[in-house]
Design brief:
Elements lengths: L26 E2 L11 H9 L14 H11 L6 E4 L1 H13 L6 E4 L5 H8 L4 E4 L18 E5 L11 H10 L5 E4 L20 E6 L12 E5 L1 H12 L8 H12 L1 H24 L3 E2 L6 E5 L5 H10 L2 E2 L1 E2 L9 E4 L3 H18 L1
Parallel strand pairs: 1-11, 3-4, 3-5, 5-6, 6-7
Antiparallel strand pairs: 2-8, 7-8, 9-10, 10-13, 12-13
Helix pairs in contact: 1-7, 2-7, 3-6, 8-10
């Protein structure tokens, strides 16, 4: 392009989200959303919300929301940092904590926003290979670095690293910040939140988008020591002081209070996940053991791209990554039992057609 300003523009290859089909009567299993509606308490909060508040700036401190989260996770209010979705929270963490000349360490197969943020903020990074079973090898993270970022369970494969192994990484890297992205931890495994009092270099990130069925309100939060919270707040307030709007706060508070509903949805998704894995195995699929609300599966006899296209023809959307090492796998979000029954029946038709 022959423009005098072109060389001064930052060129970034952006993150590509899952397809959002603009039509009805689809089964959407490609973006890891919760298949169930939010808590009934959320509906009540929306009905009762005083719309006159919308003319005012929201609460700067968000203390009521922080208090209910602090109670939920047995931490202090001052250990919680809020943002517009965990994406914004992690992006602010990158800006705040990763400013050395050493590269940060991230898995080669993981949430694909991490390397995008590195490119955007000019952060050096090294992608560490997962082993042949798509497992994170803790030994590879026991070396000098500018920071560590690990999704646990890891996306898009769904594998979980045991907390004892994770702690070895955190303990070894006391001279750098370790971020554990726990977007899917509610679907299996133990959270690293229990370690934030023990390690002042640890940041644990959660979201309302998955297990709490509130992807639409864009709310995420980090939990870490007060010193790190202070640095995060300073960076956030240099960019946007009022990150969480008042309506989002009201909805999130109502959702967080309804622990019984949260637990019910969580257990239903786990139960459906295990049933679907079993049904897939009977059709010749090999599925990575998942501790998330999605599965990562392959059929050695049928190309993943073919299955992806054929499912789409039946208005069933799953996620296909045309990338080395994982281009024969499909990531499938766990939907309702009815949705997954239709998904399984569609796969049976594809297999019968293929053979």
């Amino acid at each position: 392009m022959n423009k005098p300003w072109f060389d001064k523009i930052r060129k970034i290859k952006p993150y590509v989200p899952g397809e959002q089909p603009n039509k009805s009567n689809v089964i959407k299993l490609n973006t890891n959303e919760c298949p169930y509606p939010p808590s009934p308490m959320v509906k009540k909060a929306l009905r009762d919300y005083d719309t006159d508040k919308l003319r005012l700036y929201p609460s700067f401190e968000c203390n009521e929301l922080k208090d209910i989260l602090a109670e939920t996770y047995n931490v202090c209010r001052n250990n919680i940092f809020l943002g517009n979705g965990s994406d914004e929270v992690i992006a602010l963490c990158f800006q705040t904590f990763f400013n050395s000349d050493m590269p940060i360490l991230i898995p080669d197969i993981t949430y694909s926003f991490y390397d995008v943020w590195c490119d955007l903020y000019n952060i050096k990074y090294e992608q560490i290979l997962l082993d042949d079973s798509f497992k994170i090898k803790k030994e590879d993270y026991l070396k000098k670095n500018g920071g560590v970022v690990i999704a646990n369970p890891n996306a898009p494969v769904g594998k979980y690293m045991e907390l004892c192994e994770l702690e070895e990484i955190i303990n070894y890297n006391k001279d750098s910040i370790v971020i554990i992205d726990e977007a899917y931890i509610d679907f299996g495994g133990k959270s690293a939140i229990s370690l934030i009092d023990k390690y002042d270099n640890l940041v644990v990130v959660h979201t309302f988008s998955k297990s709490r069925a509130l992807a639409g309100i864009r709310l995420g939060y980090a939990m870490c020591g007060e010193d790190l919270i202070g640095y995060l707040e300073a960076v956030k307030n240099s960019f946007n002081s009022y990150t969480v709007n008042s309506l989002t706060q009201a909805v999130a508070i109502a959702c967080a209070k309804d622990r019984e509903y949260f637990e019910s949805c969580r257990q239903k998704i786990i139960k459906t996940r295990e049933r679907v894995v079993y049904e897939l195995s009977k059709m010749g699929f090999e599925t990575i053991q998942s501790m998330s609300n999605f599965i990562f599966t392959t059929n050695p006899k049928i190309k993943a791209s073919f299955i992806f296209d054929e499912l789409k023809k039946q208005n069933i959307f799953v996620r296909y990554f045309n990338k080395p090492r994982i281009n024969e796998y499909l990531r499938v979000t766990i939907g309702t039992d009815d949705e997954m029954d239709l998904f399984i029946e569609a796969l049976k038709k594809i297999i019968n057609y293929y053979f």
